[in-house]
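Field reference: sequence -> structure
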Amino acid sequence: MLDMIEAIGEDPKREGLRGTPRRVADMYAELFVGLDLDPKQELVVGFDEGHHEMVILKDIPFYSMCEHHFLPFFGLAHVGYIPKGRIVGASKLARAVEILAKRPQLQERLTSQVAEAIVDALAPNGVGVVIQAEHMCMTLRGVKKPGSKIVTSAMRGLFRTNPATRAEFMSLVQGR
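Structure field:
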């Protein structure tokens, strides 16, 4: 961090910058806490309810860090699954998203990792994940297009193979 401060022409000994390397290190430790956690562990505790219909948790806010520029991207994740009788608490789905977002990430990878964690932990009949996010690397620099959002999806099982299931999920996620 000292090299970066010097590279932009600043004095790392200046009062306002003296503690910056430590603060930045602490910040990154917090932002990347997901590196040390397994999202599947959050999905272990569930309930055998005999439920076989679609379950969706919409509008899960998340914040992540783009691994290309180390700038934030943030938005909403929508997660759905069709259980084989076993369900998990909604907070567990949100926690899995949170853990995976707290790593140096690509939105495309994050979307797939959320889907795979649910598949691996719950073995459901299907999983659908849609993530929409704004990337600061497109807002603060480069093309400078604030408000632009990238939308990614990952479909597994019935969400991939059954067009009606996929359409129902997308319709519910989009609020129609």
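Note: The domain at 32-173 is CATH 3.30.1130.10 (GTP Cyclohydrolase I, domain 2).
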